[in-house]
Amino acid sequence: MGKRKEHELDIYEQGKSKSPxxxxxxxxxxxxxxxxxxxxxxxxxxGMKAVxxxxxINYLRWDKDLSTxxxxxxxxxxxxxPVLGALIADSWLGKFKTIIYLSVVYVxxxxxxxxGAIPSVGDSSLHIALSMLGLILIAFGTGGIKPCVAAFGxxxxxxxxxxxxxxxxxxxxxxxxxxxxxxxVITPILRGDVKCFGGDCYALAFGVPAILMIVALVVFIxxxxxxxxxxxxxNVLSDVCKCVGLAIKNRWKSSKFDPKRKHWLDWAExxxxxxxxxxxxxxxxxxxxxxxxxxxxxxFDQQGSRWTxxxxxxxxxxxxxxxxxxxxxxxxxxxxxxxxxxxxxVVVYPLIGLCRINLTPLKKMSVxxxxxxxxxxxxxxxxxxxxxxVVEPAPPEQCLLQVYNLAESDIKLNISGSDLxxxxxxxxxxxxxxxxxxxGGHSNNISLQVVQNDHVSTCVQTFTEQKAYSLILxxxxxxxxxxxxxxxxxxxxxxxxxxxxxxxxxEAVNVTVGDVxxxxxxxxxxxxxxxxLRNEYTKVRCSSGQNVSFISLGLxxxxxxxxxxxxxxxxxxxxxxxxxxxxNNIHITWQVPQYVLITAGEVMFSITGLEFSYSQAPAxxxxxxxxxxxxxxxxxxxIVLIVAEGAGLNQWMEFLLFACLLVAVCxxxxxxxxxxxxxxxxxxxxxxxxxxxxGDDDSLKKNQKxxxxxxxxxxxxxxxxxxxx
Length: 725
Prior knowledge:
Blueprint: H1 3-18, H2 30-50, H3 52-58, H4 64-116, H5 124-155, H6 162-192, E1 195-196, E2 199-200, H7 202-222, H8 236-253, H9 274-290, H10 294-300, H11 306-311, E3 317-318, E4 322-323, H12 331-354, H13 361-386, E5 398-405, E6 412-415, E7 435-438, E8 445-452, E9 455-462, E10 468-475, E11 480-486, E12 496-503, E13 509-513, E14 516-520, E15 525-526, E16 530-533, E17 535-537, E18 540-544, E19 547-551, E20 554-556, E21 561-569, E22 572-581, H14 592-615, H15 622-646, H16 651-674, H17 683-693, H18 698-711
Parallel strand pairs: 5-10, 12-21
Antiparallel strand pairs: 1-2, 3-4, 5-7, 6-8, 8-9, 10-11, 12-15, 12-16, 13-14, 13-18, 17-20, 18-19, 21-22
Helix pairs in contact: 2-5, 2-6, 2-7, 3-4, 4-5, 4-7, 4-15, 6-7, 6-12, 9-15, 10-15, 10-16, 12-14, 13-14, 13-16
């Protein structure tokens, strides 16, 4: 061992002997810095991620599929990078320095992301570039420190402090969930309720998590003199990869059958100890069971993307005062996980045991998959009903058309080459639902014949395929005038209402709705279509010349589009509100069942899966399983990325597809689990001790001893914390 390693070990041993304790307890003071650091870091991560999908849609102006794809690409990268962080910590810098350096990268990512959300900083291409650079840096930061922080906290305890270490991990887990819950409540408020640069304040919503990450870094550094800092001791993952590579290489080169080598890994025995090879065999059996698992995470991680987008088209009001934000619903998972963990441990599992049902860990994981599939079944039903309030765009070679009759009597409309609007259109009646008008040929100029009181008027209008239109019909004393205007049928993702005015009077009118100004020209002039906040508008100011009056528009609800006809009666302005696109009439509470099911599935799948994995692997192989587990999350997000960009399905069909895929994967997993034989890794000590007694040579025992000393780092001896994904 070199002088540098000896010096680091001396420092570590000194730290072990002088580590101060918290007042009146046997806990080292250093863990308080680690717990606060984790709370702030989780706040920064989940707070930023909570508003990310809406940021892509409302700020960067991306469509839903691209926003979903980038969201899951980022999530995937966050779970690929922990492997890199573990390699850096164990092979080069050690856990302490790795946390410090990658936290600096983390902070830089948050700052770059926040700057990219400032509208005055460059154009849209620069905003996109800064946003992507910020997300990449954040992914490397959060992923890199993920495998280090919990294990570093475990390092602060002496070997005999098993109870204290176990309680620390419980506190550590609570800090994770506390950071998650608070951030998913607070950052959506910073985004939506605080206005800056003329709109939602995404710069603040990203800036506060950046500040929390700076606090996390400062707090962690502040405890530097109190930490036990074990030096890097080599990475077992690297040894495993080299051993597997050598076995494959030797087996490929050899054309002879060797009866002594019953397993392909036995071809690495010339260089690696038999115990290591046997341990790798045990781990590979567990990793084989990991192959179907990404599909669970493909469903689970859509809470922050597809489920949030679903919430934007739902009614978020609770009474007349409190309005939930769509990105705040994600807090429900973190709240429920804190509630469900003790309920399952104290109530559910004991009751199942009383029924004499042998619910093995792999069976629990299968049930967790089924619950997640049921969650997406519930999401499918919700989405199917949500879609009833949405006006679907017209397919190619068609457009959407509705008609407003603002004349004084009923009108009959004949459209050349079409049988639409066969019934008379009544005066000032709410328009019927949009009709699909067939277009075709090289010209989309269509002749319209309007009949009023036996008087026939003809007009020609130009339509564009896949757009939506309103045809305004009104009299001018000589016949009926046609006026074609383009409509906005896309529901506001900001939980606002679309509003426009048509003024039948002769004088222009200025209308003030909340903070939004509308200018409505006279003689059937039409205002711009603007968004207004969801509210009850009972006193709307209208000014025409020197005259000022007030009108009531009633409730302008979530996601609806309204056209208000302004008429004049004895000098007073009279409004008639018409609905072009229905409001979001499915309440957000209908999402609760899918959150309950997905969280129950997480408890049975994720927590049980980690416990099973670690019970089936040798102590010094736990890092390999941790890497494999995190990679299942990464690949799960890749699946969503592929489906979001490539499937092209309606959203309810996509939810149903994911549910069916998970059921199919669950069947495959159950089949694999049926043939799995549970093992006790502690048997390794007895097995190889017996082999040593029977005459294993000294060199083999030395190789095994050196390998165990190299890989038995405390990183792999700590229980992994099941953080909210």
